[in-house]
């Protein structure tokens, strides 16, 4: 089991893995706790995910398909699996409601249960729970519901970043041209 932390434009991301090298979680924080960095090899799946997250946070570049085979899903219920798969169908830069997710998985009255599943999402951003909103508000994110919480401010920033990527205001913000190799941009924190 290990964890790798690195800086992005909105704070610190940590990616964890289990003894088999499968990704166990992605977490976000405003600042590093200064903890130990892993000793030994970082799994390729963690390095690849880190590179994608750096490009996502720095440029708004969509994360490629969810690497389901690389995720530790042993603690997920069938309901959580259905919810997580459904929200990966929400396009980059768009939002859907909790009710939409419930309907999508055929559980029309499970809106609150959808919210609880998203609250427990071990892979926020990769499994894009920030794209799920309440019917009349931003909704929650990473277990927080107060608009003043940093997590909700991050949710709003992520939605803005994705929208800007989809509809750049200035041509130099578009996805045209070549970007630096993202793996080279990953810097460990701790």
Keywords:
single chain; 190 residues; alpha+beta; Arc Repressor Mutant, subunit A; 2 domains; two-stranded parallel ribbon; 6 helices
Show the helix and strand layout:
Layout: E1 2-8, E2 11-17, E3 23-29, H1 44-59, H2 78-87, E4 96-97, H3 98-104, H4 111-119, E5 132-133, H5 150-166, H6 182-185
Parallel strand pairs: 4-5
Antiparallel strand pairs: 1-2, 2-3
Helix pairs in contact: 3-4
Percent helix range: 25-40%
SSE topology string = EEEHHEHHEHH
CATH class of the largest domain: Mainly Alpha
Number of extended strands: 5
Strand content: 5-15%
Contiguous runs where pLDDT drops below 50 for at least 5 residues: 173-187
Distance between the termini: 17 Å
Total helices: the number is 6
Number of domains: 2
Cross-sheet strand order for the largest sheet: 1-2-3
- Rg value: 16 Å
CATH third-level topology of the largest domain: Arc Repressor Mutant, subunit A
Give the name of the CATH architecture of the largest domain.
Orthogonal Bundle
Mean pLDDT: 85
Describe the structure in your own words.
The protein has two domains: 2-67; 76-166, Winged helix-like DNA-binding domain superfamily/Winged helix DNA-binding domain (Arc Repressor Mutant, subunit A, Orthogonal Bundle). The chain is of the alpha+beta class and 190 residues long. The protein has six helices and five strands; from the N terminus they run βββααβααβαα.
Short description:
The chain is built from six helices and five strands.
């Amino acid at each position: 089991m290990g964890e790798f932390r690195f800086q992005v434009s909105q704070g610190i991301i940590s990616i964890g893995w289990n003894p088999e090298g499968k990704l166990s979680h992605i977490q976000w924080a405003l600042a590093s706790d200064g903890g130990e960095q892993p000793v030994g090899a970082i799994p390729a799946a963690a390095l690849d995910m880190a590179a994608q997250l750096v490009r996502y946070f720095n440029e708004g570049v969509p994360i490629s398909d969810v690497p389901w085979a690389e995720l530790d899903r042993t603690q997920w219920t069938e309901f959580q699996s259905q919810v997580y798969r459904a929200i990966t169908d929400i396009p980059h830069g768009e939002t859907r409601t909790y009710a939409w997710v419930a309907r999508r998985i055929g559980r029309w009255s499970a809106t609150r249960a959808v919210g609880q599943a998203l609250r427990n999402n071990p892979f926020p951003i990769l499994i894009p729970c920030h794209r799920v909103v309440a019917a009349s508000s931003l909704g929650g994110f990473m277990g927080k519901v107060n608009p003043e919480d940093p997590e909700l401010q991050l949710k709003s920033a992520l939605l803005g970043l994705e929208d800007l990527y989809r509809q750049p205001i200035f041509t130099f913000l578009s996805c045209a041209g070549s970007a630096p190799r993202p793996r080279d941009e990953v810097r460990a924190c701790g």
